[in-house]
Every structure is written in C-alpha cells, then in structure tokens.
Amino acid sequence: MDILRIALQVTMVITSGLMVLTILMHKGKGGGLSDMFGGGLTSSAGSSGVAERNLNRITIGIAVVWVLSISLLGLIQKFDV
Predict the structure, then answer these.
(1) How does pLDDT run across 3-17, given as a tens digit for each residue?
(2) Membrane-spanning regions, if any (predicted)?
C-alpha cells in the first residue's frame, strides 16, 4: 500500500501543477485576474477556437485525474489498518 500511496501523491502533485498551468493558459473572458496581466489588451490576438477547445479538454482530463487521485488517497487513508 505504501507504493500505491506514494504513486498517488506524486500523481497529485504533478496534476496540481499542470492544472495551475493549464488554467492560467486559458483566454480571459474579461474583468478577472487575466486582465490584470494584460489579457484584456490582446483579445483579438488570442488563441483560436480549436486551440481553446483542446485546452479545455486537457484541463478537464487533468482535473479528472486529480480528483481520482485525491479520492483514492482518501480511501486508502480511511481503510488503512
């Protein structure tokens, strides 16, 4: 169980970092934190629709792996004898 726990913890750390990066890569929809860093100024030079959809899919996939790793870690901790 220790190897599985360590693997899940490593997975959680990696996916946490990837989630931060992918969320920050999204095009700003206005008025938020992305506008503070100049996202509002480059609205016409943003990513295309296909790239944004692919980024959404990647972000959702990483989020699913992140939630699964946290859930499995919780179950391991709950049933650890």
Answers:
(1) 999 999 999 999 999
(2) 6-26, 58-76
